[in-house]
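Have a think about this chain, tokens included, and walk me through the fold.
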Amino acid sequence: MKFIAEEVRELMAQLGFRTVNEMIGRTDQLEPKKAIEHWKARGLDLSNILYQPNVPADVGRYCQVPQDHGLDKALDNTTLLKLCAPAIERKEKVIAELPIRNVNRVVGTILGSEITRRHGVEGLPEDTIRIHFKGSAGQSFGAFMPKGMTWILEGDANDYLGKGLSGGKIILYPPAGSTFVPEENIITGNVALYGATSGEAYIRGMAGERFCVRNSGVDAVVESVGDHGCEYMTGGRVVVLGPTGRNFAAGMSGGVAYVLDEAGDFEKRCNKQMVGLEKPDAEDAVALKTMIENHAINTRSARAAKILAAWDKYLPKFVKVMPKDYKRMLEAIKRVTDSGLSGEEAVMAAFEENAKDVARVGGG
């Protein structure tokens, strides 16, 4: 980064600028290419975009008035920080019920930041803070929540539910008395659990597109998902108790997913470039059943209860989505561990063994 900064300063000096602010908006210093060879760009005229109006020198070209993001009105600042002070300061349990509206965004993020600041990456003991929200949550409900925080949402949520979840727990189910069938209706928007690293999520209903994209450690149960589920996933476990959209597991390089494929057509909607489809083994069956039981307990899911009541019937219908390279690495770790190595030695030995296998297959 120091080398990059040094080069930037040199280029700025050549252009006659001392600060980045001086450069903003100075399109007169840009030199568009005259002869563009790429067929998509051929003939493009950027002159209107780069046009500089004749304005006085004191007209601002960059942000000079601080933006008011309204954070003082955020639910964390108006209610949650004070409500959860005993947990933050003395690790005392806090249990409460609160209304929520879709104008309440990133609920729990500021509180979670304060917990991490006070208690580090370990957070708080599980379920130290347990808040039951009722209503419709705005974007990024439960984003970046650390361990010790449990958000129960009786209602529905917008996009980015649990973004960057970092050890916390999110439970989402429809309002009491609702008449729709949860597993056939959307209850949370797109990109839920994007970039999540650890924790748990139980969602009684359908999630939108790109569920668990870049998930690297969260265990999640959901009853159906839209397109691009588990895209670029690198860790964690995902259970889908129903159908998925197209392009499931695209770029998935780690973790594992279990999909209930009652119609027998999941293979057509799965991107198998980096994953293989298998039947869950005995070890998988135990982990899978435990996650579904937790889902039933936390959300009172009728779908989960039905599956558990006829477990022997439903288990064969689950498909295990397993990244190919991840599986090979796990097998290599098991072989070297069985040989007597442990911990870091086993991982390094497995990595070297796997690298040799890849070289042999690739021819060099």
